[in-house]
């Protein structure tokens, strides 16, 4: 029977790989023209998702590309006060290592048989066991898996739920090759995550494996139209950085220096989530995984849940190779419970981030009594 996966993100690829390990082949259709079509984002903290990589037979390769030093963390207030610093010993276990999303995706792609991923196929619709793509082509399926992310189009086959704005808008900037170009700022940020909290906004700086420091400025309790009304001229990088500095009025000068050192890449992001605890009635031939199923606040669980979704669905299908409806029911029952708990935890962390005293609440979160 034919398993058709829409979306070559981490969850869809994990599903295809664990199926392959268990002797079941599948086809992945991806709208992007090739694996190099666009950047894949920054670093991921892979912790609860590691069992999926074990099921995929890739845990050794994962540890080889993971950055244990990425577990380092600094937490500060906007006036420069250091609240917390955690430095990871070189021999510490890789409990929460950071890995470049692109490297992890490449690891999964390279572990699939040639031809498993069909590039340049944008999903349009599906009905009666046939999926249609934007280029006019089509394919049959016995099971259709929507792994097509936050704005999933497959989702509409199972639920009317749509993502709603989270009340958070992000502007991403960055400093390339920071060790060479700005060694003082490199030492300040450190090897892992660098978090600064002010009133209603935060700055997160993160060292990437390619030497770039990715910086996200988050503006909390802001509306869906905030990026358009913020006065940030995204088409003029120099003026955009100047406006961001204005918005950080009162912040310590060392944080302003980070923005001044950034290159001309300025990317706006409006964040959304699906309803907490979303479920749907099982269908015999369609299911969802990853952000398509449970888009949650971006506090470190999404990629881990997507990897687990892919592995758990694959194992359910391997256990019921001649009964896809039974496999889907088994998978969705476990997925709803597991990801519901992760979404509730993520919502609690998001509530702390959006509070006026976010720095102190996050300190208590990382250092509970």
CATH hierarchy class name of the largest domain: Alpha Beta
User: What summary fits the major beta sheet?
Assistant: 7 strands, mixed
SSE run: EHEEHHEEEHEEEEEEHHEEEHHHEEHHHH
Distance between the termini: 53 Å
Helix proportion range = 25-40%
Trace the largest sheet across and list its strands: 5-4-13-14-15-12-16
Q: Using DSSP, what is the number of strands?
A: 17
Integer tally of domains: 2
CATH H-level homologous superfamily name of the largest domain: FAD/NAD(P)-binding domain
Protein name: Flavin-dependent monooxygenase
Cofactor: FAD
Domain FAD-binding: 3-165, 286-320
Enzyme class: oxidoreductase
Question: Any overview of this molecule?
Answer:
The protein is an alpha/beta fold and 369 residues long. The protein folds into two domains: 3-52 and 99-163 and 274-353, FAD/NAD(P)-binding domain; 164-273, D-Amino Acid Oxidase, Chain A, domain 2 (2-Layer Sandwich), CATH 3.30.9.30. It is 35% helix and 23% strand. It has helices at 10-21, 50-55, 59-65, 101-110, 178-181, 183-189, 226-229, 237-247, 253-260, 291-294, 302-319, 324-353, 358-366; strands at residues 3-6, 27-30, 43-45, 73-77, 82-86, 98-100, 117-119, 123-127, 130-133, 138-140, 143-146, 164-175, 193-197, 201-207, 213-220, 267-273, 286-288. The protein has a seven-stranded mixed sheet, covered by helices on one side. Helix 1 packs parallel to helix 4 and helix 1 runs parallel beside helix 11 (302-319). The radius of gyration is 21 Å and the shape is globular. The termini are far apart. The relative contact order is 0.18. An FAD-requiring monooxygenase active on some tetracycline antibiotic derivatives, which leads to their inactivation. Hydroxylates carbon 11a of tetracycline and some analogs. It is found in: Cytoplasm. Its main location: cytoplasm.
């Amino acid at each position: 029977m034919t398993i058709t996966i829409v979306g070559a993100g981490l969850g869809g690829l994990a599903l295809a790989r664990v199926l392959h390990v268990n002797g079941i082949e599948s086809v992945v259709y991806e709208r992007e023209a090739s694996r190099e079509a666009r950047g894949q984002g920054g670093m991921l903290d892979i912790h609860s998702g590691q069992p999926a990589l074990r099921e995929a037979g890739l845990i050794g390769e994962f540890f080889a590309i993971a950055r244990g030093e990425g577990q380092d963390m600094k937490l500060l207030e906007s006036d420069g006060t250091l609240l917390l610093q955690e430095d990871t010993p070189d021999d510490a276990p890789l409990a929460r290592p950071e890995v470049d999303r692109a490297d992890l995706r490449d690891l999964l792609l390279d572990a699939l048989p040639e031809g498993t991923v069909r590039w340049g196929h944008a999903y349009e619709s599906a009905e009666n066991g046939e999926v249609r793509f934007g280029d006019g082509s089509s394919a049959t399926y016995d099971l259709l898996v929507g792994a097509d992310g936050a704005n999933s189009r497959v989702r509409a086959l199972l639920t009317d739920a749509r993502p709603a704005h989270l009340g958070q808008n992000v502007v991403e900037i960055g400093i390339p090759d920071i060790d060479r170009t700005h060694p003082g700022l490199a030492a300040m940020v450190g090897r892992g995550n660098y978090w600064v909290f002010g009133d209603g906004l935060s700055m997160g700086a993160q060292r990437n494996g390619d030497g770039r420091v990715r910086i996200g400025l988050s503006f909390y309790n802001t509306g869906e139209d905030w990026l358009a009304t913020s006065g940030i001229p995204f088409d003029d990088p120099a003026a955009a950085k100047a406006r961001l500095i204005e918005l950080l009025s009162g912040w310590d000068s060392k944080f302003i220096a980070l923005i001044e050192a950034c290159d001309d890449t300025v990317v706006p992001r409006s964040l959304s989530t699906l309803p907490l605890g979303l479920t749907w009635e099982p269908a015999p031939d369609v299911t969802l995984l990853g952000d398509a199923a449970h888009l949650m606040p971006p506090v470190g669980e999404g990629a881990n849940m997507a990897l687990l979704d892919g592995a758990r669905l694959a194992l359910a299908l391997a256990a019921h190779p001649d009964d896809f409806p039974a496999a889907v029911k088994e998978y969705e029952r476990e997925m709803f419970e597991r990801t519901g708990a992760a979404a509730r935890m993520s919502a609690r962390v998001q509530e702390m981030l959006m509070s006026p005293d976010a720095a102190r609440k996050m300190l208590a979160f990382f250092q509970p009594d």
